Amino acid sequence: MNNPLAATILQVIERAPKWVRHDLESKEEVIRARAEETLAAMIAAALAEYPSSGT
Question: Residue 39 above 70 pLDDT?
Answer without folding.
Answer: yes
